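Researcher: First entry.
Model:
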Amino acid sequence: MASHPQEKKADALYAVVVVLTSLKQKVTSREDMELDPEDKDHLTRTFHYHVPPEMREGIDVGQLVGIPFGSRYLQGVIVNLDDTSPVQKTRDVDQIMDPEPVLSLAQIDLAYWISDYYLSPIQQTIRQMLPPGMLRKPQVIVEAVPDVEADTNTEAQAEILSLLREMGPLTYRQISRATEQDNWRSVVDQLVDHGWATRKREIGAPRVRPKRVAVVRVSPSYDAEEDYPSKRAHRQRDVLDYLLARGEAGKGWTPLRQVRKETGASYSVINALEEKGVVERGKRQVWRDPLEGQRFVPIQPPELTGDQDAVWRTIAEDLTEPQGRPFLLQGVTGSGKTEIYLRAVARVLAQGRGAIVLVPEIALTPQTIRRFGARFPDTIAVMHSQLSEGERYDQWRRLRSGDLRLVIGARSAIFAPISDLGLIVLDEAHEWTYKQQQTPRYHTRDVAARLAELTGATCIFGSATPDLTSTYRAERGLYRKLQMPRRIMGHRRILEEQREGLPEERIRFRPIEKEAMHAPLPPVEVVDMRAELRAHNTSIFSRSLRQEMEAALAAEEQIILFLNRRGNATFVMCRDCGHVLRCPRCDVPLTYHSSDRDLVCHHCNYRTASPTQCPECWSRRIKFFGVGTERVEEVTREAYPQARIVRWDLDTTRGKSSHQEILDRFMRREADIMIGTQMIAKGLDLPRVTLVGVISADTVLNLPDFRAAERTFQLLTQVAGRAGRSILGGKVIVQTYTPEHPAIQRASEHDYEGFYTQEIAFRREHWYPPLSRIVKLLYVHSNAQKAEREAERLHRILEHRIARLGLPQVDLIGPAPAFFSRLRGKYRWQILVRGKDPHRLLRHMRFPLGWRVDVDPVSVL
């Protein structure tokens, strides 16, 4: 490893490297925070490294390299090559970790854009783009100096030195395992100081490696006339026949484990065949494939409806000659947006290009994979956080090599290494889950638009209820808006399948003499729960909902019950003194879960047993208030003991395949009622669901966030869209204590345009996004007084900068405690910077430790 700086040379080549480590500087004063406007690289700091002559042929932009950095040995990504260096002395690039670039030129440009727009360090952005397990940890290697007499002073020194001479060079971890000494590190320091051992730093082994398995095949030299096993060796004959059949099928090498499983042969049988020269064994790399074992049933594309055809013609034209502006595809639930995505993917794959299709929740990936797998079974990759590291790493490598050209996944799949990208699709593009909540706090919608611009790809944002920002951008011409205002009941073949075996009296819609049939959106009944209380109905089910549930169950139809809150009870209170049991780390009410009789914090997962007495006054009058999905399940089972019920929320989907198992069970009609949170409101196509009941529409509505009405409208409209997607029709019942609220009224009428007009007027009056932009500055500290002081201090600095820079169109909201003022033992204060261009205020600032910067936050709570 080259550890000494090299003199600048006239004909030298330098690698410009983003070092993948934190470069934070201590910030204690106003002078530390306010940077010179010329200091443009505090978020995009790079370092020049000399490229040794022997590396010049293999060096390339985008490669991962090992480099010395101070006293450490780290990894970095080459973002440029330069024939000059801004400094006189440079150090050498030590190692190219992967000959293939880990980032494309477009991804590097995208990383710089994310860093600038979201005010985040570029090294963290680049880390986000790499698969887990690719980066290796630095390690220290200790080696005994040969042929040097060591007059060791202690038994500890003698022991460690003896280990090094007997076992060779050892890492710190290996030394700690080989000795029982607690102070072995100081002993190593002593050996190095005396010159009896040397120490160096290097990159350790990768955490994730390619998987290799034992394989076997018929030997190419095998002669059936001479070498066939004797008739008495039945097991050997079975193995040989199996391998010959596999060979004829073009398989060649076959996993040894599979051979033994299929034939029942032992290792001794395989060994005997190998000794006779009949078979040969080896090792072969295999892909860890999350779709292994899945079988897709091919289907023919249906004929497009008039609405679909008009949209498809416009998008198809852009796939040939991109115009550089994203499409906002607004189609009501069930209007056939997915068929547009499928045709667009087919077109770009036929062009030899690749595609990225994103969904907002991991829960939606099984259904999406099933639909796309039916059209493109051999080129799908999957990327989301519930895959193992090995699976994610192998999917990434296959995409980079071009072996796979279509990726389906959640938010992080936007960074998939698709070569020659032709299409990006964001389904349910309005969802807040497309916003990353850790640094870099990017919004996938805006990253996708930028990536499409950099690559010349077509970009489609699809939604039945677009967020206000997207619609506002479409009005201004930044997006191109396409609409599909009518729901497709189904194509003739599907309608005939749905009709098969159904009594005529149960069919609410009659197919007409066309390839496809349209149908109205389901009627929505809004139930005033205040009136239910006045009628002495204290059940969580209104009388109307109970009546409709009984009818649906009697007709053997399926029901969805939606509540955006999990658990059994939302808080626990003493009826004598009013004490509410709260999380000691988050200062929020604990939620009661009856399955394990625990009180749980949904922010930090703190758990405690449910008390029988009040911890304040020792009263036994403990009352459970509110209702969650767990409680809805209990009440439903009591009311309808004959019904088969599944619950779909965060508590029931901890396992890797939980989402798919629950969905498959419901699709196979092994359950009559599905109870769930917002997971079930997004994009699911469940034809047998004829009733959707919203237990409470008020959960999000009354939160102190300017987007509360928008989210309520979107959630209600989306969950209502799960009903009536077949010839059976459907109905939606929304229970609420505020039936007169505009968001609820407009949702019940499926009136997006009316809601948008009303809500954008409210945003304009109060200068909220999208009329302005907001950056949330959040300070987090374990000391309440310290958090308040730091928030007030930064507020004064920002006010001073606004006045000094002359920024009349920038103002500050706060400082104030956040709505969740204490989480995980930390107090939270925030300042909202609002304006046309808040970057002018913040771009040249460096924030002290403890501050979090969130550009375009999706929540101000």
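Researcher: Second entry.
Model:
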Amino acid sequence: MKNTRERILIAALIIIATCGQGLFFAQTDDQTLSATASFNAEEPVTPETPIEISLNRELKSGEKIAVIIGETDLTSLFTQSKNRFVYDAKLMSLPLGKSNLTVYLIDPNGRWKEIARLLLLVQSSEPKDQSPKIEETKTEGQTEKQVEEKSETEKEVKAELAKTEEPKTVENKAVETKTDEVKTEAAAEPAKTEETKTEAAAETAKTEEPTPEPATTEKKRFFKFLPTFTISMESQPFQSNFPAETRPDKRATFTDFNLTGSVKTEAKVGNLTNESNFDFAGSSFKEKTLQFGTLAREAPDVDLASYLMNFTVGKAKVSLGHTSFGNNRHLVSSFSSRGLSVSVPINKYFDVTGGIENGTSVLGISNFLGMSQIRHQVQGATFGIEFFPKRQNAMRLEITGFNGYFQALNGVSEGRIVDAERSRGFGLRFVTSDKTERFKLEAGYALSRFFNAADATLDPEGKAVVLPAVIRSAYYLDSTYQLLKDLKLTKTKNLNMSFGFKYEYVEPLYRSLGASASADKVTQDYSMDAAIGEITFQAGHARSNDNLANVPSILKLLTRTNRFGVALPLAALIGKSEQPSPFLPRLGYSIDQTHNFGAGIPVNGGFEIDPATIPDLVNTNQTASSTWQFKKFNFGYTYSRSFADNRQAANENKDQLGWAHALTLALNPMETLAFNVGFSFDSQQNFELNQINRTKTLNLGTTWQPFKRATFTGELSQTLAGDEAKTSLTRNVNYSGQFAYAFNLEKTGFKKFGMQAFVRFADAFVRNRNFVDVSNIQTRTKIMTAGMTFNFF
């Protein structure tokens, strides 16, 4: 376990340095979120292969990630660790065949945005059935004539075997017996003549005893029951605070018990197969229970978190539980909730998919099917046409209809007012590609009618003015073309180059309850990706603007973005590629520049009073990185620079400049011992205030496995922050140490048991000094936590 953790840590550091993530500042916190997966779209995986999704940055407060495979929402089965999401396929196998894995970002307002769509190819790991083959090689002592006669005998045997596929009668049973005898004779005495074989067959035909049927390799009926339960105890027996008044009034010390469980079943009866998974969760601490946000103290201590039942008959599939449906970006795009989704191929040219789901997420046993509230659900169906079924997505058209109705439902902890909403719409989606898949195109169109339905909760007397329904449209186009594919430059270097273009147009006031779209906005994106062996280049330009109706009194905001990046392993240019020198680093560089500005001064919009309110800001971010990899240690260096150029009228001096140096070192002298060191130094300059703030951070970490199943980890970090004028100084020192032990006992059936235990101690010290006010404030917190987990599966 220790080696795995260390490898993950080292790999993460390398990726961070190589890709130029480094240390970013406030201007880079809003970078576009993207996701990558651990699998390759061109290489098949088995149904039990774990899936890992990595994000290019950590999620912000209130943000969530949803993962849809095909039409099934499997978010609840992913385990999150910072910006990594891991799916354990042992809980629920991956669906066989080709399917799309789609990753969505859910913002704090509940809007969904697609950030990645990846092709997942899953093939069965079981060996395919093979019919018995008759040996054709000439054995020692056989003549050519004997081999020839044996070949003729084998042809007769195969012909007789083909007859056994027909329904058996008494005569057929006799023929089947004759066939087995002929096969035996052919193998033992290949030199028999045709007359001898005929006599043997005639003699065998007299018997009417049935021959046992060969055993089938695939069971027509089976049932598997795979439960998993985890009972955990987490405790904080000790907490010390200085000064004493900083000690929290509640839960300074506590002991909680948690229960999580999963019940998986697999069954098959004839052509009907079923895979089901039910997840449960509970806690002794009421505020950690699943439905505390909506039921408060009435929430059950143990509740149903999610479930999914997949039924397959032939190629038709029905999913019940936490599922999703919809493939139109602006109308209904992988809407996920509890309900029903279906996928029925009519023939090789036509198919139908659809779903009925609750309008919001459902927890617990109530509304088990997710379809009990007709006025709080979404409904939709898609009719798909494959024009060339022999090649998937060669040319495909999808026609979608959608209807959604949301009631004004609020959780007990929500502080916002919502209104009843309804939307209905129609959409088209077209996908095509050439035979080599060098050219790919996807286009979509959506027409939606949105309005606020009457809401007796907000307007009990019915005196509110009813807003008219709004009918608006949205459309998009995504295309890529691989201009150069595996063009030979040298014996070991190939050149690949592809171009991409994206266009999206969403009319003002457009809205659909089944998808998230930024209304009143048009966006264009141009991209170029190239690779020469291991050397990769990326470049792109994006532009967008709002106020599509050109309302004179509304500010039109324009955005222009340019980006460029290169990853350059020096070993690809110097030395032998088959034996790269560890002294040659991997270099990386990226730059992106974003310009946000107003197109002009709106008429009678209030901006003419103070032109400084019209934005005009240019943000430029650059990152350079280098990484050295050796057998026992890795070293990395990253430099990043950000500059915010404010060009607003009368605010030209409100610029900010930031830069940072970061060093990382990972040592692995023994398989059971590893160290990591990190140091960073950054500076932030505010030109308006003529102020420079600097921060130094040192991190030390170690992992030691003193004996099998036991792991000790320790971390020490210190941060010094102050300004160049030396008016203030802040010092933070944090230390933590943890000892963990894991024990697993595996047998057959349900006789499997696992136990993990840990003890952790943390000490945090903060000192704030202000040399102007002559103040010195110190705080210190010591906390000990312990936990134990028992797994039954």
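Model: Note on the second entry: The first strand starts at residue 35 and ends at 37.
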